[in-house]
Each structure stands twice: as C-alpha cells, then as structure tokens.
C-alpha cells in the first residue's frame, strides 16, 4: 500500500479526494497554512467597518478535509454506531470521530453503571448544575466487522461528510497494520489514534500506556504512518507532566495533526452514606476519565502549550490541532480557536445536551465573530496565543507600565484648559498632598 508522502499520486480518485487531493487544482493541504497565527484583528476590523457586514463563514479545511463548521463529534458514545453517527451528520456536525475500535472487540467488557456526575450545588444535589463527568467506559465492544460495515454505509450515504476512525491496538506492528488497512477500505477520511485513554487495558500497552511513553509512541507512530494513506491525528493524554513532548514525537513521526485533550484520570467521589466510591459497581469502583465543564481551563492550558510548541518548532507546515475539553457553548469553542485550534471536538456535551447542540454552537460562534467583525475562522485562529508569556516577563511589563504612568504629567497643561463645571476637580488634580 502506498504511503501518504511518496505514492499518493498512484491512488484511485476516490482515495485522492479523501486525503485532500484534487485532480484539477493539486494538493489542498497548503490552504490551511498550518498554524499561521499571523492574523491581525485590527487590520481586519478596518476593512470590515468600511464595507457591508458579511455573514460569518464557519467552514474549515483541515489537512485537506473540508468541513461545513469546526465542530466534530469526539470519539465516545456519540459515535458508537451507525444510527447515532447518521444523526450527527443530519444535525449538521462538521465531522464525526467514531468510538475507538480494535481488532478484538471480544476482549472489551464494559460494566454499568459506568458514569458519575459532579454537580455544583453542595452535597451533590440532584438539582445542581453538572460541572464534571466521569466515565470508566472502555473502547467499542462491537465486532470490528460490524463497525467497518457501518463506516462504509455512512460514507456511501454521506460522501461529502468527514468520518474519522479512532483506532487503538496492542503493542503489535502487524495488528496496527491490519487495523489500518481494514479501516481504509471502508472509505474513512482520516484516523485519530487513541494514545490517551486513561483507564482500561494498560497491561496490553494500549491507550495512555503508549501516549505516556515517548519511546514507545515514536515506534508505534512510525508503524502507523508507514502504511496509512489518509491523515493521522494523534490524541494526547493530559495525564503527563509535559504534553508537548508526546505531541512533538507524533508530528516528527509523520502524524498530520494532534488532538488534545483526552479525559483526566480521576476519582469522582465517595458516597458519604454508603462509604463506597462512585460510579459504584457491585460496591466497588476504579479510577476513570474526567470530562465536562470543569476540565475546560485545564484543556485550554494544554492546547495553548501544544500550539506554542507547534508554532515555534514546526512553523507554517501543514499540521493541525483539534481541541477537546468541556465545550458546551460557542464561546468555549472560540477560546480554543483563539489559541490555535483548527477544529473543536465535543463528546460529553452531546451526552448531556443531545446532537442538536451543534446548532447552538454554530449560532453562538457566529455571534462572537460578528461582534469582532471576523468573516472566517482563519481570521481569528491563534490570535490570543501571542499574549502568553513568562511570569518574569509579566513583572517586567508591569514595572515598565508603572514607570510610564508616573511619568505622565498630572493636572492642567495650560490656563486655557480650566472649565467652570470641573473647577474643583481640576484644582485637586494639581495638589501634591
């Protein structure tokens, strides 16, 4: 099978379209400009104010994949079968990442209950706002053949929509190669590699067990990118000291993009009546993955760090960044895009609010864009990244600002500046004690 970089021209037309090639216009990848954070909102505002207001365009092109908006169903229950993925396309989501699949689904055994909620009200009142969500759910327990059949059916029915396969395997080169070959035969548009699931089967060197070991990650990414002919995104775990290290390894080993973050390892809480942990299965529990609104600030920091690394080390190369973590509003999404994200994934938000959430997200993101006179996602992507610096630099900046304020002359500069209405205040402005 041809590789992404050396033999794409030899692929069939359908495959070339799928990986971002157009028979008439050539490679589409450069259209994204990589992480090009050079947009200046001031210049754009002047242009927009001089002309008529333009309806914001939410469409994005990421690694050659065209989406009507940047909102993507994150891998998990919202992408677990044909029925729910079809619903996502019908509601208008920009893309869908299916629930993670592996070769041997019979090894996946889920339990129930497998979710627990954290509410804002004291003592976890059932009426309190949900701010945290924990799951101890594993990857897809459905046979791979069934999932592949549904991938193929979805691509036949929605040929112009983006379907991404999330895959995870053991530390076995042949297994990874087989899984990639079989998924690509269905017509999927890209892969997201699950290097980040925080729970379940670490003894098989799966999920975060790979994402937390850069040597292992480097080897596995090499296997994957040697055979994959469609774009590959590496999904990062936040359960690591420096998230930029595995992200750097994945990009250096041929991945076209990075997704961040997966869930945060957590213990949701202890029931103070039963003294048992939640979620409680036959009186017992296990640490799981934490998501929803409470993780959003943590995700912003991780995405910011990855974006800064990508900008400084990879420049204008055509790499993408997909942000994940606590997105429930268009404003949440705008924050990620302002930090450099190309797309924004939503999983827990869909589980709480339904697939129709995408309409709210699009509407609110457009409202934000109108407020700032942005006509496209690229007009503001990465705009806020330059305002992050070190604490030492913050001290220097503040000291300089204080010096400048002290240097400004107070009071009236000329007798002509006196006014009758403000005479007392003007007098006081020139008193030294």
UniProtKB/TrEMBL annotation:
GO molecular function, one term: dihydropyrimidine dehydrogenase (NADP+) activity
EC annotation from Swiss-Prot or TrEMBL: 1.3.1.2
PANTHER family attached to this UniProt entry: DIHYDROPYRIMIDINE DEHYDROGENASE [NADP(+)]
Enzyme's top EC category: oxidoreductase
Stored Pfam families: DHO_dh
Key words, A-Z: Oxidoreductase
The protein's name: dihydropyrimidine dehydrogenase (NADP(+))
GO cellular component: cytoplasm
Pathway: Amino-acid biosynthesis; beta-alanine biosynthesis
Coiled-coil blocks: none
Sequence ranges assigned to domain Dihydroorotate dehydrogenase catalytic in this UniProt record: 58-369
UniProt cross-references to CDD domains, sorted A to Z: DHPD_FMN
Superkingdom: Eukaryota
BP GO terms, sorted: thymine catabolic process; uracil catabolic process
């Amino acid at each position: 099978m041809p590789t992404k970089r050396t033999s794409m021209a030899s692929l069939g037309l359908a495959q070339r379209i799928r990986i971002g090639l157009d028979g008439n216009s050539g490679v589409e990848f450069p259209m994204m400009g990589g992480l090009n954070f050079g947009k200046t909102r001031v210049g754009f505002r002047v242009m927009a104010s001089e002309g008529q207001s333009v309806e914001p365009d939410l469409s994005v092109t990421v690694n050659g994949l065209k989406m009507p908006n940047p909102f993507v169903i994150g891998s998990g229950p919202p992408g677990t079968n044909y029925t729910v993925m079809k619903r996502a396309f019908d509601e208008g989501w920009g893309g869908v990442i299916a629930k993670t699949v592996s070769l041997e689904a019979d090894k996946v055994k889920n339990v129930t209950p497998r979710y627990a909620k954290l509410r804002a009200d004291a003592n976890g009142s059932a009426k309190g706002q949900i701010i945290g969500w924990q799951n101890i759910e594993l990857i897809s327990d459905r046979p791979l053949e069934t999932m592949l059949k549904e991938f193929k059916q979805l691509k036949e029915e929605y040929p112009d929509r983006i379907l991404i396969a999330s895959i995870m395997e053991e530390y076995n080169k042949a297994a990874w190669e087989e899984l990639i070959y079989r998924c690509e035969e269905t017509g999927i548009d890209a892969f997201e590699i699950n290097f980040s699931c925080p729970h379940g089967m670490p003894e098989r060197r799966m999920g975060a067990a790979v994402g937390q070991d850069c040597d292992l990650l480097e080897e596995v990414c090499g296997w994957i990118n040697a055979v994959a002919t469609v774009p590959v995104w590496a999904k990062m775990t936040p359960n690591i000291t420096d998230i930029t290290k595995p992200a750097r390894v994945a990009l250096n080993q041929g991945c076209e993009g990075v997704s961040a973050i997966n869930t945060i390892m957590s213990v949701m809480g202890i029931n103070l009546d039963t003294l048992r942990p939640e979620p409680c299965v036959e009186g017992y529990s296990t640490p799981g993955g934490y998501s929803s609104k409470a993780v959003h600030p943590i995700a912003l920091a991780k995405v910011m760090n990855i974006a800064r690394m990508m900008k400084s080390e990879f420049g204008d190369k055509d790499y993408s960044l997909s942000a994940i973590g606590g997105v429930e509003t268009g404003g949440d999404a705008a924050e990620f895009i302002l930090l450099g994200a190309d797309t924004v994934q939503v999983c827990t938000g869909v589980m709480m609010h339904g697939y129709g959430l995408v309409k709210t997200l699009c509407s609110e993101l457009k409202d934000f864009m109108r407020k700032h006179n942005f006509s496209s996602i690229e007009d503001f992507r990465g705009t806020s990244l330059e305002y992050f610096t070190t604490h030492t630099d913050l001290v220097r900046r503040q000291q300089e600002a204080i010096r400048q304020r002290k240097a400004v002359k107070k009071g009236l500069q000329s007798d002509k500046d006196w006014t009758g209405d403000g005479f007392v205040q003007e007098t006081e402005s020139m008193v030294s004690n």
